Amino acid sequence: MASTSMARNWAELPPELLQLCSQRLCPKNLSAFRAVCRSWQSAAVKEWSDVPWLMLTDENGMPQREFFCLSCQQVHKKLLPEVMANGYFSSRGWVLTTSRDGEFHMLKNPMSRYSHIIKLPNWNKFPNIEDLPFFDVDFIRKFVLSDSPTTSPEYKVMVIYDNGQLGLWKPGEEEWTAVNSPTDERIYDVIYYKGSFVAVDFENRILRCDVDGPTPFEAQVVFQVPRRLQEFEHEYPPGSLWYVNEVCLVQSTTGSLLFVSLEEHVASTITFQFLVLEIDLDTQMYTAVENLENTSLFLGHNSSFSLEVDEDHLIKPNCIYFTYVRLSSSQFFEDGGDTGMGIYHLKDGTVELHVEGKSSPLLWIEPCF
Protein backbone atom coordinates (compact mmCIF):
# COMPACT_ATOMS: atom_id res chain seq x y z
CA MET A 1 0.00 0.00 0.00
CA ALA A 2 2.81 2.36 0.95
CA SER A 3 4.71 1.61 -2.26
CA THR A 4 1.61 2.37 -4.35
CA SER A 5 1.17 5.69 -2.57
CA MET A 6 4.84 6.57 -3.09
CA ALA A 7 4.64 5.72 -6.78
CA ARG A 8 1.57 7.93 -7.11
CA ASN A 9 3.32 10.81 -5.32
CA TRP A 10 6.36 10.59 -7.61
CA ALA A 11 4.07 10.70 -10.63
CA GLU A 12 2.34 13.80 -9.29
CA LEU A 13 5.44 15.95 -8.90
CA PRO A 14 4.98 19.47 -10.34
CA PRO A 15 5.79 19.59 -14.07
CA GLU A 16 7.98 22.66 -13.52
CA LEU A 17 10.17 20.73 -11.07
CA LEU A 18 10.39 17.73 -13.39
CA GLN A 19 11.42 19.94 -16.29
CA LEU A 20 14.17 21.57 -14.24
CA CYS A 21 15.47 18.14 -13.23
CA SER A 22 15.41 16.85 -16.80
CA GLN A 23 17.44 19.84 -18.02
CA ARG A 24 20.41 18.67 -15.94
CA LEU A 25 20.48 15.16 -17.38
CA CYS A 26 22.59 13.82 -20.21
CA PRO A 27 20.73 12.10 -23.10
CA LYS A 28 21.28 8.61 -21.70
CA ASN A 29 19.81 9.50 -18.31
CA LEU A 30 17.16 11.66 -19.96
CA SER A 31 15.85 8.61 -21.81
CA ALA A 32 15.56 6.73 -18.52
CA PHE A 33 13.86 9.76 -16.98
CA ARG A 34 11.22 9.79 -19.71
CA ALA A 35 10.53 6.09 -19.22
CA VAL A 36 9.44 6.45 -15.57
CA CYS A 37 5.83 7.40 -16.32
CA ARG A 38 3.70 9.50 -18.65
CA SER A 39 3.82 12.63 -16.51
CA TRP A 40 7.62 12.54 -16.41
CA GLN A 41 7.78 11.94 -20.15
CA SER A 42 5.46 14.89 -20.80
CA ALA A 43 7.39 17.26 -18.52
CA ALA A 44 10.89 16.34 -19.69
CA VAL A 45 12.73 18.62 -22.08
CA LYS A 46 12.63 17.40 -25.66
CA GLU A 47 16.34 17.92 -26.24
CA TRP A 48 19.53 17.97 -24.19
CA SER A 49 20.54 20.32 -21.40
CA ASP A 50 22.44 23.59 -21.64
CA VAL A 51 25.74 21.80 -21.05
CA PRO A 52 27.91 21.46 -24.20
CA TRP A 53 29.07 18.07 -25.42
CA LEU A 54 32.51 17.06 -26.60
CA MET A 55 32.57 14.90 -29.70
CA LEU A 56 35.56 12.59 -29.49
CA THR A 57 37.64 11.44 -32.40
CA ASP A 58 37.24 7.94 -33.73
CA GLU A 59 38.27 5.82 -36.67
CA ASN A 60 37.61 7.77 -39.84
CA GLY A 61 34.47 6.84 -41.67
CA MET A 62 32.92 4.84 -38.84
CA PRO A 63 29.19 5.53 -38.27
CA GLN A 64 29.44 5.26 -34.48
CA ARG A 65 30.76 8.30 -32.65
CA GLU A 66 31.71 8.88 -29.03
CA PHE A 67 30.57 11.90 -27.01
CA PHE A 68 31.96 13.00 -23.66
CA CYS A 69 29.31 14.37 -21.30
CA LEU A 70 30.47 17.11 -18.94
CA SER A 71 27.38 16.49 -16.80
CA CYS A 72 28.02 12.86 -15.87
CA GLN A 73 31.72 12.72 -16.86
CA GLN A 74 31.05 9.66 -19.01
CA VAL A 75 31.52 8.73 -22.65
CA HIS A 76 28.36 7.86 -24.60
CA LYS A 77 28.22 6.25 -28.02
CA LYS A 78 25.82 7.38 -30.71
CA LEU A 79 25.20 5.68 -34.04
CA LEU A 80 25.17 8.14 -36.92
CA PRO A 81 24.42 5.91 -39.90
CA GLU A 82 22.86 8.73 -41.92
CA VAL A 83 26.20 10.27 -42.89
CA MET A 84 29.52 8.47 -43.31
CA ALA A 85 32.10 11.18 -42.73
CA ASN A 86 35.78 11.84 -42.15
CA GLY A 87 35.64 15.45 -41.03
CA TYR A 88 33.38 17.15 -38.49
CA PHE A 89 32.66 20.81 -37.66
CA SER A 90 29.99 22.38 -35.47
CA SER A 91 27.97 25.58 -35.20
CA ARG A 92 24.79 26.39 -33.25
CA GLY A 93 24.28 22.74 -32.37
CA TRP A 94 24.53 21.57 -35.99
CA VAL A 95 27.36 19.40 -37.27
CA LEU A 96 28.87 19.74 -40.73
CA THR A 97 30.28 16.47 -42.04
CA THR A 98 32.74 16.03 -44.89
CA SER A 99 33.35 12.75 -46.69
CA ARG A 100 36.36 11.52 -48.63
CA ASP A 101 34.33 12.05 -51.79
CA GLY A 102 34.00 15.76 -51.05
CA GLU A 103 30.34 15.67 -50.03
CA PHE A 104 29.02 17.98 -47.31
CA HIS A 105 26.01 17.45 -45.04
CA MET A 106 24.62 19.35 -42.07
CA LEU A 107 23.24 17.20 -39.27
CA LYS A 108 21.08 18.73 -36.55
CA ASN A 109 22.13 18.02 -32.97
CA PRO A 110 23.59 14.49 -33.30
CA MET A 111 22.64 13.65 -29.71
CA SER A 112 18.99 14.40 -30.39
CA ARG A 113 16.34 11.78 -31.10
CA TYR A 114 15.27 13.72 -34.17
CA SER A 115 17.32 13.56 -37.36
CA HIS A 116 17.46 16.48 -39.73
CA ILE A 117 19.99 16.40 -42.58
CA ILE A 118 20.71 19.12 -45.14
CA LYS A 119 22.81 18.43 -48.24
CA LEU A 120 25.22 21.18 -49.28
CA PRO A 121 27.06 21.61 -52.60
CA ASN A 122 30.13 19.40 -53.03
CA TRP A 123 33.72 20.57 -52.81
CA ASN A 124 34.04 20.99 -56.59
CA LYS A 125 31.39 23.72 -56.41
CA PHE A 126 33.82 26.05 -54.62
CA PRO A 127 35.47 28.91 -56.55
CA ASN A 128 39.22 29.29 -57.04
CA ILE A 129 40.16 25.62 -56.66
CA GLU A 130 41.32 24.95 -60.22
CA ASP A 131 44.78 23.95 -58.97
CA LEU A 132 43.47 21.22 -56.64
CA PRO A 133 43.72 17.82 -58.36
CA PHE A 134 41.62 16.04 -55.72
CA PHE A 135 39.67 16.61 -52.51
CA ASP A 136 41.66 16.74 -49.27
CA VAL A 137 40.01 15.91 -45.94
CA ASP A 138 41.49 19.17 -44.57
CA PHE A 139 39.81 21.22 -47.30
CA ILE A 140 37.37 22.76 -44.79
CA ARG A 141 38.90 24.63 -41.82
CA LYS A 142 35.87 26.21 -40.13
CA PHE A 143 32.07 26.13 -40.40
CA VAL A 144 29.73 28.87 -39.15
CA LEU A 145 25.95 29.29 -39.31
CA SER A 146 24.31 32.71 -39.17
CA ASP A 147 21.19 31.12 -37.62
CA SER A 148 19.86 27.66 -36.94
CA PRO A 149 18.12 26.23 -40.05
CA THR A 150 15.26 25.03 -37.84
CA THR A 151 14.43 28.55 -36.66
CA SER A 152 15.37 30.72 -39.64
CA PRO A 153 14.86 29.75 -43.32
CA GLU A 154 17.11 32.68 -44.29
CA TYR A 155 20.20 31.20 -42.65
CA LYS A 156 23.64 31.39 -44.26
CA VAL A 157 26.66 29.08 -44.13
CA MET A 158 30.20 30.44 -44.07
CA VAL A 159 33.30 28.26 -44.22
CA ILE A 160 37.04 28.74 -44.25
CA TYR A 161 38.29 26.50 -47.04
CA ASP A 162 41.42 25.50 -48.91
CA ASN A 163 44.25 27.91 -48.11
CA GLY A 164 42.36 30.20 -45.72
CA GLN A 165 39.67 31.51 -48.08
CA LEU A 166 36.08 32.40 -47.18
CA GLY A 167 33.17 30.70 -48.92
CA LEU A 168 29.44 31.38 -48.53
CA TRP A 169 26.36 29.28 -49.26
CA LYS A 170 22.68 30.19 -49.01
CA PRO A 171 19.73 27.76 -49.18
CA GLY A 172 18.67 27.07 -52.74
CA GLU A 173 22.04 27.88 -54.31
CA GLU A 174 23.93 25.22 -56.24
CA GLU A 175 27.42 26.63 -55.74
CA TRP A 176 29.56 28.23 -53.07
CA THR A 177 30.42 31.92 -53.48
CA ALA A 178 33.78 33.43 -52.62
CA VAL A 179 34.09 36.32 -50.17
CA ASN A 180 37.01 38.42 -51.34
CA SER A 181 39.50 39.71 -48.79
CA PRO A 182 41.45 42.96 -49.26
CA THR A 183 44.55 41.30 -47.81
CA ASP A 184 46.68 38.40 -49.00
CA GLU A 185 46.71 36.77 -45.58
CA ARG A 186 44.86 33.57 -44.81
CA ILE A 187 41.77 33.71 -42.62
CA TYR A 188 42.32 32.28 -39.14
CA ASP A 189 38.78 32.29 -37.74
CA VAL A 190 35.27 33.55 -38.50
CA ILE A 191 32.08 34.00 -36.46
CA TYR A 192 28.63 35.50 -36.97
CA TYR A 193 28.51 38.68 -34.88
CA LYS A 194 25.68 41.23 -34.68
CA GLY A 195 24.24 40.48 -38.10
CA SER A 196 27.52 40.08 -40.00
CA PHE A 197 30.21 37.51 -40.51
CA VAL A 198 33.38 38.77 -38.83
CA ALA A 199 36.77 37.17 -39.47
CA VAL A 200 40.37 37.49 -38.30
CA ASP A 201 43.39 36.82 -40.49
CA PHE A 202 46.93 35.71 -39.65
CA GLU A 203 48.02 39.34 -39.17
CA ASN A 204 45.35 39.90 -36.48
CA ARG A 205 43.24 42.06 -38.77
CA ILE A 206 39.51 41.96 -38.06
CA LEU A 207 37.35 41.90 -41.20
CA ARG A 208 33.61 42.39 -41.64
CA CYS A 209 32.05 40.52 -44.56
CA ASP A 210 29.30 42.04 -46.69
CA VAL A 211 27.25 39.10 -47.98
CA ASP A 212 23.79 40.67 -48.21
CA GLY A 213 24.31 42.72 -51.35
CA PRO A 214 25.11 41.67 -54.91
CA THR A 215 28.19 39.63 -55.76
CA PRO A 216 31.11 39.81 -55.65
CA PHE A 217 31.01 39.64 -51.87
CA GLU A 218 33.69 41.73 -50.20
CA ALA A 219 35.32 41.81 -46.77
CA GLN A 220 36.67 45.02 -45.25
CA VAL A 221 39.26 45.52 -42.54
CA VAL A 222 37.52 47.15 -39.57
CA PHE A 223 40.11 46.74 -36.81
CA GLN A 224 43.77 45.88 -36.31
CA VAL A 225 44.78 43.96 -33.22
CA PRO A 226 48.50 44.61 -32.63
CA ARG A 227 50.45 41.79 -34.26
CA ARG A 228 52.82 41.64 -31.31
CA LEU A 229 51.02 42.28 -28.06
CA GLN A 230 54.14 43.15 -26.09
CA GLU A 231 52.27 44.49 -23.10
CA PHE A 232 50.48 41.17 -22.73
CA GLU A 233 53.27 38.72 -23.59
CA HIS A 234 54.45 36.28 -20.95
CA GLU A 235 58.03 36.05 -19.71
CA TYR A 236 59.51 32.63 -20.39
CA PRO A 237 62.90 31.27 -19.30
CA PRO A 238 65.75 31.64 -21.82
CA GLY A 239 65.92 28.76 -24.27
CA SER A 240 62.28 27.76 -23.94
CA LEU A 241 59.92 27.65 -26.91
CA TRP A 242 56.42 29.06 -27.22
CA TYR A 243 53.79 29.15 -29.94
CA VAL A 244 50.55 30.93 -30.65
CA ASN A 245 48.61 27.71 -31.07
CA GLU A 246 45.17 29.16 -31.76
CA VAL A 247 43.36 32.45 -32.31
CA CYS A 248 39.59 32.60 -31.87
CA LEU A 249 36.82 35.15 -32.12
CA VAL A 250 33.94 34.68 -29.67
CA GLN A 251 30.81 36.65 -28.88
CA SER A 252 30.45 36.91 -25.12
CA THR A 253 27.16 36.40 -23.32
CA THR A 254 26.92 40.19 -22.92
CA GLY A 255 27.30 40.74 -26.67
CA SER A 256 30.89 41.96 -26.81
CA LEU A 257 33.47 40.73 -29.32
CA LEU A 258 36.32 38.77 -27.76
CA PHE A 259 39.69 38.04 -29.34
CA VAL A 260 41.28 35.02 -27.65
CA SER A 261 44.83 33.81 -28.19
CA LEU A 262 46.07 30.46 -26.90
CA GLU A 263 49.81 30.25 -26.31
CA GLU A 264 51.55 26.92 -25.84
CA HIS A 265 54.78 26.96 -23.85
CA VAL A 266 57.27 24.16 -24.42
CA ALA A 267 59.95 23.43 -21.82
CA SER A 268 60.36 20.42 -19.54
CA THR A 269 56.55 20.38 -19.49
CA ILE A 270 53.98 21.84 -21.85
CA THR A 271 51.70 24.53 -20.43
CA PHE A 272 49.00 26.80 -21.81
CA GLN A 273 48.36 30.53 -21.43
CA PHE A 274 45.37 32.52 -22.67
CA LEU A 275 45.07 36.15 -23.66
CA VAL A 276 41.51 37.55 -23.85
CA LEU A 277 40.84 40.97 -25.37
CA GLU A 278 37.50 42.73 -25.63
CA ILE A 279 37.30 44.65 -28.91
CA ASP A 280 35.02 47.63 -29.50
CA LEU A 281 34.69 48.09 -33.25
CA ASP A 282 32.90 51.44 -32.79
CA THR A 283 35.56 53.13 -30.65
CA GLN A 284 38.44 51.16 -32.20
CA MET A 285 39.70 50.25 -28.73
CA TYR A 286 40.60 46.99 -27.02
CA THR A 287 41.02 46.06 -23.37
CA ALA A 288 42.40 43.00 -21.62
CA VAL A 289 39.79 40.80 -19.95
CA GLU A 290 40.95 39.41 -16.62
CA ASN A 291 37.59 38.23 -15.30
CA LEU A 292 34.75 36.67 -17.31
CA GLU A 293 32.54 36.74 -14.20
CA ASN A 294 29.48 34.54 -14.85
CA THR A 295 30.59 33.57 -18.34
CA SER A 296 32.67 30.65 -19.55
CA LEU A 297 34.15 30.24 -23.01
CA PHE A 298 34.28 27.07 -25.07
CA LEU A 299 37.08 27.22 -27.61
CA GLY A 300 38.11 24.70 -30.19
CA HIS A 301 39.65 24.15 -33.58
CA ASN A 302 36.19 23.71 -35.08
CA SER A 303 33.73 25.45 -32.74
CA SER A 304 33.82 28.33 -30.23
CA PHE A 305 31.07 29.97 -28.17
CA SER A 306 30.24 31.42 -24.74
CA LEU A 307 27.87 30.22 -22.04
CA GLU A 308 26.34 32.09 -19.10
CA VAL A 309 26.71 30.12 -15.87
CA ASP A 310 26.59 30.61 -12.10
CA GLU A 311 28.13 28.95 -9.06
CA ASP A 312 25.43 26.25 -9.06
CA HIS A 313 25.88 25.38 -12.73
CA LEU A 314 27.66 22.24 -13.84
CA ILE A 315 30.02 24.45 -15.84
CA LYS A 316 32.57 26.45 -13.86
CA PRO A 317 32.29 30.24 -14.26
CA ASN A 318 35.20 32.46 -15.31
CA CYS A 319 36.87 29.58 -17.13
CA ILE A 320 37.92 28.69 -20.65
CA TYR A 321 37.08 25.15 -21.73
CA PHE A 322 39.37 24.42 -24.64
CA THR A 323 40.35 21.62 -26.96
CA TYR A 324 43.91 21.48 -28.15
CA VAL A 325 46.35 19.85 -30.50
CA ARG A 326 49.90 20.07 -29.20
CA LEU A 327 51.59 21.05 -32.42
CA SER A 328 54.94 21.23 -30.68
CA SER A 329 54.56 17.63 -29.54
CA SER A 330 54.37 16.34 -33.08
CA GLN A 331 57.35 18.48 -34.09
CA PHE A 332 59.70 17.82 -31.21
CA PHE A 333 58.61 14.49 -29.75
CA GLU A 334 58.58 11.10 -31.44
CA ASP A 335 55.23 9.99 -30.02
CA GLY A 336 53.29 12.42 -32.23
CA GLY A 337 50.79 15.15 -31.45
CA ASP A 338 48.54 15.01 -28.42
CA THR A 339 44.90 16.10 -28.37
CA GLY A 340 42.60 16.71 -25.47
CA MET A 341 40.37 19.04 -23.51
CA GLY A 342 41.41 21.41 -20.76
CA ILE A 343 39.88 23.93 -18.37
CA TYR A 344 41.78 27.19 -17.93
CA HIS A 345 40.94 29.24 -14.82
CA LEU A 346 41.29 32.95 -15.55
CA LYS A 347 41.48 33.75 -11.85
CA ASP A 348 44.89 32.15 -11.29
CA GLY A 349 45.97 30.72 -14.65
CA THR A 350 45.75 27.09 -13.54
CA VAL A 351 44.82 24.38 -16.04
CA GLU A 352 42.99 21.09 -15.66
CA LEU A 353 43.60 18.60 -18.47
CA HIS A 354 41.03 15.96 -19.40
CA VAL A 355 40.28 13.49 -22.20
CA GLU A 356 43.81 13.27 -23.56
CA GLY A 357 44.67 11.14 -26.58
CA LYS A 358 46.47 11.03 -29.91
CA SER A 359 44.15 11.77 -32.78
CA SER A 360 42.48 14.61 -34.68
CA PRO A 361 40.98 17.64 -32.90
CA LEU A 362 38.02 17.19 -30.58
CA LEU A 363 34.78 19.04 -31.29
CA TRP A 364 32.54 21.12 -29.03
CA ILE A 365 28.84 20.87 -29.80
CA GLU A 366 26.84 23.85 -28.61
CA PRO A 367 23.57 23.29 -26.72
CA CYS A 368 20.45 23.82 -28.80
CA PHE A 369 16.76 23.21 -28.19
From TrEMBL:
Lineage: superkingdom: Eukaryota
Listed Pfam families: Beta-prop_KIB1-4, F-box
Domain F-box span(s) in chain numbering: 13-55
InterPro entries, A to Z: F-box-like_dom_sf, F-box_BR-signaling, F-box_dom, KIB1-4_b-propeller
SUPFAM superfamilies, A to Z: F-box domain
Stretches of the chain forming a coiled coil according to its record: none
Signal peptide start-end: none
The protein's name in its UniProt record: F-box domain-containing protein
Organism of this sequence: Eucalyptus globulus (Tasmanian blue gum)
